[in-house]
Every structure is written in structure tokens, then in C-alpha cells.
Amino acid sequence: MGKEREESLKAAVLHMPGEAPRFEEFPEPTPEQGEVLVRVKAAPLTNLSKMRANGTPQFPVVCGVNGVGLLEDGTRVYCGGCRPPYGMMAERAIVSRSECIPVPDEIDDLTAAALPNAALASWLALVFRAQFQPGESVFILGATGVSGKLAILVARQLGAERVVAAGRNQAILATLTDLGADAVISLNQSDQTLTEMVANEAAHHPCDIILDFLWGHPAEVVMGALTRPAFQGEASRIRFVSIGEMAGSTASIPAAVLRSCGLEISGSGGGSIAREAIYDTFPQIFALAAQGKLRMDIDPVPLAEVENAWQSQDTPGRRLVFLP
Q1: In what order do the strands lie in the sheet with 237-242?
Q2: Residue 308 CB-density burial (10 A; 0-12 exposed, 13-18 middle, 19+ buried)
Q3: How high is the pLDDT of residue 229?
Q4: Max CA-CA distance within the chain?
Q5: Is the C-alpha dihedral spanning 320, 213, 161, 159 positive or negative?
Q6: What is the CATH number of the domain that holds 159?
Q7: Are residues 173 and 246 in the same domain?
Q8: CA–CA dist 298, 210 (Å, integer)
Q9: Are 50 and 128 part of one and the same domain?
Q10: Is 239 helix (H, G, I), strand (E, B) or coil?
Q11: Is residue 273 part of a domain?
Q12: pLDDT for residue 1
């Protein structure tokens, strides 16, 4: 006799936008054409997960954009693309077959679930938006967050000659040279002092690429620090790539900044890079993780504790991952 199908599962279920999901029963999903059922092993709590959950047009909904699970044949995959109202923060999920990516045996479930989202942020920005070349220098604005810390490792693995990390969390800043940063700059100082430090760095070590996870006022100060006096010769090219907006969704940029230096501003995200290019990057990230060259700090939490964990303050520089 075949295995009897379950009628329900335990999941992180959100009933209203702005609330925290609750750990409760939810109807078992039935795969449709092109979909497969996965037994979820781990699912990360990311900003994207929260935004997607609160922005859904229907409730109740299961939270979780991506994660790691087992197919019916035992293959372990990183996956996402759940059809609403289903999500990855559940015992089981339905996902698009085309979005299942095999996970190397050398990577544990927690790392496999948490790493891709954070690593892709800087990898895609560097490779596809900034057209990074080995030997170039990278300035990371917002380097004390989860994705910012990982950006240091990504830049090094891609061949960056120099990496400068700027952020607010002093305790984490003190650890970033161990990750591979050549210099660190604290954002916890006056605009004048920060401007002087960034300008001094640019004068002695010209920067090729700025990866910005913050936007808002920090971006204004850093870009303003790049302003040069007129007629100082041709300015070197600086590619400023906006990845996040943790410090604000708007920034005021004086026109003089753009006229006085070789600043080029672009953004990196799901709307600016082809889907195929994104999925082609996963095997490269997993290969480096399997070698221990990409790593991150992770806090595992039972999915049953999702309501409290969802509302708690994030531990700086660490990713929370739910275990069903």
C-alpha cells in the first residue's frame, strides 16, 4: 500500500499583516504540475521573508521564502518559489521543481539555508552590476550586518585587492579584519570626521566599487566625501551599487558630487538581474561554502518558537534559522 497522505502540518501561519506568525496547524499542500513536495529541514528568517509575508494579498499564509529540504527521493535541495498561501516555514512545502538546487554534502542544513540569500546580495552586485574585476578595491557601507559581513568574504573570494568595511556596531567592527577587511571605519562619529576619514581613504587607496547596504544619510556622507576640487585631472571611476536601505529609503545627493568625481550609481536586486544569472550563481556559492571559504554566524531556533523569535530584536551580524 502507498504511503497515506497527511491532512495537515505544523507551520508558521500569519493571519494579519503586522502581526507575528503563530505555530499552528495548516492544510497539507498538494503539488500541482511543475511542483514538488519537500520535507523542510531549515528556513531562515530574512527581511525578505517578513516583507513577503506582510505584503501577501491573502491570509492566512505560511511564512518563509526559501530554505533547505528533502525531496521524496532523499535529495537535499535549496529551494523556494512556494505557491501562496504556502511557505518554507513549515514541516513540508510545495516548491517549483525548477527552483530546486542540490546542496553539497559538506554543507550543514543551517548554513545551506542561511547563506545563499546573504551571499547573493554582494555577489550579484559585484559581478553583474559593478562588473567587478580581480584586483579592484571594494568599500562596504553597512559591513556589520549579516550580508555586509559576508560581503567581505565574497569580495575576497572574487579577488578584491583591498576591502574597507564601514559600519556602526563597534563590537562587530573589531572582528572584521579577521574576516578579511584591510581597514574599518566607524559610522558612529560626526559627519565631518566621517567625511575626512572616507576622503583620506579615497586619497591614499582609490576605491573602485562601493557596496551600500544602508542608503539614507550614511550614503549621503560617503558620496559627499568623494567630491573633488575642479580641474584636478580626470577622476577615476567609482561604481556605487545600492543593495539595501537599512538607514532610509531616500538620500539627497548634491549634483556637484556627480560632476566632481567619477561616481556611477546603480542598484542591485531581483528587478535588475536576470533570473537565470541568479540561479547560475548558487553552485558557485555552495562550492565555496563547502570549502569553508564562505561562512556566517547562525542562531538555530525551533519553529515552534516562531512567534517570539519573529518579534525579538535581531542579534547583530547573525542570521536566525528555524528548524521545523
Answers
A1: 183-186, 162-167, 137-141, 209-212, 237-242, 262-267
A2: exposed
A3: 62
A4: 82
A5: positive
A6: 3.40.50.720
A7: yes
A8: 26
A9: no
A10: strand
A11: no
A12: 39
